[in-house]
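Narrative summary of target 7.
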Amino acid sequence: MARYTGPKLKLMRSVGLHLPGLSRKSIERKPNPPGMRDGQFRRKKSDYGLHLLEKQKLRFNYGVTEKYLRKTVREAFRSREHSGHKLLELLERRLDSMLFRAGLAPSIPAARQLVRHNHVLVDGKRVNIPSYRVDPGQEITMTAKGLKIPVVSQVLEQPVLARPAWLAFDAERGAAKMIAVPDRESFSFPIEVNLIVEFYARSVK
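Modeled conformation, tokenized:
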């Protein structure tokens, strides 16, 4: 399945939750799912529907395809750690996600564009692959040209989220360094990760 490029609010309304990585906009004014009016009857979700909903939250927030998510789930299952927590860690360690969590981009889609346009350096070297996995000890910086982009300078002054404890940030240089692996406590929105593990338990090996 190709990556979704339509209205981001529509995706957030479909899962009934603000996804900070997807957009800065809020669904507060229109919280109902697309096509459903205020006060309209909502059918109770089945167990499968609840599992699917949690999986979609994760996929929409990080902007990844189903194929990529399944590949990452498979890797999490092979680890010796808690599968759900490992899955979240691997997604947070993506370069586009880390750029967003560091306060260098207003959303993950915006971060992905910055990476693809060669505005991002990892340990001083240009990296243009959004899915590049950052390791503890590595440092992310913007190019001099990248720091002058209006959307970057604006978000530096007012980050979307508080920077997590596993990131060290140098405001003068606009540099972020991963000092530890991302933890479950610093996750940016509510999610039942165990339901995601159960969703893929039979289909991913």
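The chain is about 40% helix and 10% strand.
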